[in-house]
């Protein structure tokens, strides 16, 4: 088996796969207020194409897959997709990122299909604020989904919180306290300038040092911990607490040097770097393993050492234009 390496000798064994660009929310950091035109059905990868694609990747040493969207639970065949991917030899870690609105109804079927882990987006505990951030979402559905999933003993449940100045940065303490009696990993994520103007981003960005400041001010004693499948997150646990918290800081701290992931968009493009415009259409090559391998390696050969996100030193970037896609169209 010839594994996947880029020109910086980084092993790539992790695929983040978007199975739809559709979403039932309009989160302020993810898509514009007016929404986005969604792909027609025939432009989105079919279930058979998805499975063959993952089989191809597994033969190249990929062992970890995360299903994303849009909102992946909007696909009526999502449980079948999970079951078939988990059955692919070599895939030993399968997770999904969801907004949680449909999770209460589907958590049991997803677990039985072989899903290992869950990431759930939850940027606030306040119902009115949640409705504002998501432009119409019902937080009670998400909380019911988290409760249902917690009873099913997934390997790990993570809550994703994108911190935005003036919107939810005053709730850091609430999220830290939530880990006292809940065995979840609360992950604070820096707001990224994807699909947003730099001017808007600069006004709303808040660094994650704030999380430590809040913990210290409230007498919380925390220690670094290791979590399986934690990706770019630095994780900590507060003494006496059941759960943990993590920090994902693509802006204030570089984590690109250890990047091991490739992203596949719902319409069949590979993106080796989240932020930059470089992407290659691989859909037609899915049935041809040799051609598929060649295109994936081309993407890796063009992958920059780091994304230089929101920074001025862009000389080393292959394609200096930031991605035209919004987060909902990439898969995160």
TrEMBL record:
The keyword Protease does not apply. [4Fe-4S] cluster 1 binds at residues 23, 27, 30. It comes from Secundilactobacillus folii. This is GTP 3',8-cyclase. Its cofactor is [4Fe-4S] cluster. It catalyses: GTP + AH2 + S-adenosyl-L-methionine = (8S)-3',8-cyclo-7,8-dihydroguanosine 5'-triphosphate + 5'-deoxyadenosine + L-methionine + A + H(+). It comes from the Bacteria. S-adenosyl-L-methionine binds at residues 29, 70, 121, 192. Residues 7-232 form the Radical SAM core domain. GO terms for molecular function: 4 iron, 4 sulfur cluster binding; cyclic pyranopterin monophosphate synthase activity; GTP 3',8'-cyclase activity; GTP binding; metal ion binding; S-adenosyl-L-methionine binding. NCBIfam families: moaA, PRK00164.2-1. Belongs to the radical SAM superfamily. MoaA family. One of its GO terms (biological process) is Mo-molybdopterin cofactor biosynthetic process. Binds 2 [4Fe-4S] clusters. Binds 1 [4Fe-4S] cluster coordinated with 3 cysteines and an exchangeable S-adenosyl-L-methionine and 1 [4Fe-4S] cluster coordinated with 3 cysteines and the GTP-derived substrate. Catalyzes the cyclization of GTP to (8S)-3',8-cyclo-7,8-dihydroguanosine 5'-triphosphate. Its EC number is 4.1.99.22. [4Fe-4S] cluster 2 binds at residues 256, 259, 273. Keywords: 4Fe-4S, GTP-binding, Iron, Iron-sulfur, Lyase, Metal-binding, Molybdenum cofactor biosynthesis, Nucleotide-binding, S-adenosyl-L-methionine. HAMAP family: MoaA_B.
